[in-house]
Amino acid sequence: MHDLIIRGATVYDGLGNLGRAADIAVDGGRVSAIGSISASARENVDAAGLALMPGIVDLHTHYDAQITWDATMSPSPALGVATAVIGNCGFGVAPCPAPLREVMMKNLSVVEGMDLNALLSGTRWEFETFPEYMALLRRIGPYLNTAVFAGHSVIRTAVMGEAASEKAVPSSDELQKMQALVREAMGAGAIGFASSFSPNHSGYGGRPMPSTIAGEDELRALTGAMGEAGRGVFMMATGSRATPEVMEAITAANGRPSYISTVLTMYNEAVPDRALTYYEACAAAQRRGHEVHVLTSCQPLSFDFTLLDPYLLLSHGAFDRLKGATSEDLMAIYADPAFRNEFRANLKNPKPGILFLGNWEHMELSVAATPEFAALEEVSIAAIARGRGLDPVDVFFDIALKEELETHFLGRLFQNSDVGVAPLLKHPAGVVTLSDAGAHLVYMCDAGFGLHFLKHWVRETGTFTLEEGIRRLTSHPAHAFRIPERGRLVVGAPADMLLFDPATVGISKPRAQRDLPGGGSRMVRDASGVHGVWVNGTKIHDGKNYVELQRGPGQVLDRFDV
Phi then psi for 393, rounded to 5 degrees? Predict the structure, then answer.
């Protein structure tokens, strides 16, 4: 008798092969048979008319703190994900000496748009070192298979304290200690090393995140320490400093694959050809034998925000004066004509890597805080400005000030043209991911990127066949990050599975949900067309609700292919 049989689904193996009608049997958390199965099972699922695929592999998440209070890693399981990689961009929680916990959390709250009170009150501090953190995750028992990056900013802070955001060049002793922590993390099962040079990555009080002020020599030393293990991948939020050429040189030096994450690789109507040049540069590096890839987003990069916390605007020089500002200070700053003129000047000559480039057609009033502006919801700032004969910058700040900075705006920043994005998604140098799940909670929720991909890029536009679309969400990212066995439905593989209806699969618009520790709010999305998610053979979500389990079935991944 089998543990589980899912009967009558069209099974897609995740490797790009055509789907076929079959039953799947599961025993001991692994696929034990695929075909016409007459044997009985302790649990049977009638999946006639539905599709069964491997669980989605999400390479770019930030559940590092949340996982310590929420083993489900919500909302990813509800959105079809079975495997998640945390610690991206070098932002995480381990290693963290006890005296530096507040410093670490304050930085994380800003750079990843997280609720500070939730981080301070919810994080389960049963660790200081990276190995202790991995041990905690095993005790918790996450719902998802979870891999963890060793993080540059985390390690820099652990060694240098608050000076990590001030001191560009570490002492020889500090560098050696950082290298030792990278080696320790790799020895404890880190998937690799992650860092950031992005100008958009600011920490608490406007201070730079530690890795963003580090030099290339430091980066090479730390990635070299990773490479000593003979395995591991390097993930970098590159900004404009870590060009594809720099990433290729690092890959050539340490022999490990590198992955670029930056808005410069996203379609941008202001410079429509720029993103593709990054992909082509990575493809050229691959032809030279150096594995450099782009982490690719399949959905528009959109931020829902208020001017109480204008994250996506902070990299403009005019916003430097917000450092340490109270809400009363913000009101005065936004009303100041000198500030507005400086912001206008910033928009006329934006720095590379800036999130908002000044196209007010892509900035809309999302949710008004007062009846006066309710009729303007979902109207662009550009259209409002035209209707009033005013400058968009003035309209933007004037509305926010009248509503005491509680107005919600939605910025649709990059990847907002199917014609421009499709070639990036299909490019062989790209790997589809970039959900940022667990981060920017007050601005957005892109954790459902895989369901969006199946809905939009497979069903609606036909850019990908269902077989190839599933491969790009499962075995392809798993192989890229050297995650063994995941992302495929074959006999002997772990039974990570997503049961869905191809005709209705998709995600809802973001909605606010107040369920963080301390009563904090976050944006979440709901799935449509999902009928069940299994991790290692255990159902974790039934398509409507999480399955209550004493312990999640996810494995803490610590062994990877070379």
Answer: -60, -45
Calpha distance 407→310 (Å, rounded)? 11
Distance of CA 397 to the CA centre of its chain: 30
Q: What is the spatial distance between Cα 433 and Cα 313, in angstroms, rounded to a whole number?
A: 24
At the top level of CATH, which class does the domain 2-49 belong to?
mainly beta
Cα distance between residue 303 and residue 360, in whole Å: 14
Q: How far is it, in rounded angstroms, from Cα 132 to Cα 126? A: 8
CA angle, 262 as apex, 61 and 227 as ends, to 5°?
A: 70
- Whether 372 and 366 have beta carbons less than 8 Å apart is answered as no
CA distance 320 to 174: 29
CATH H-level, domain 55-300+415-482: superfamily: Metal-dependent hydrolases (3.20.20.140)
Task: Answer yes or no: same fold for 2-49 and 55-300+415-482.
Answer: no
pLDDT along the chain (562 residues), means of 10: 97 98 98 97 97 98 98 98 98 97 94 90 97 98 98 98 97 98 98 94 90 98 97 96 97 98 91 95 98 96 87 89 88 97 94 81 92 94 97 98 94 90 98 93 88 98 98 98 98 98 94 90 94 98 97 98 94
Closest CA to 43 of 92, 90, 3, 97: 3
What are the phi and psi torsion angles at 544 (to 5°)?
-125, -40
Beta bridge partners of 292: 258
Q: What is the pTM of this model?
A: 0.90
The DSSP H or E segment spanning 69 is: none
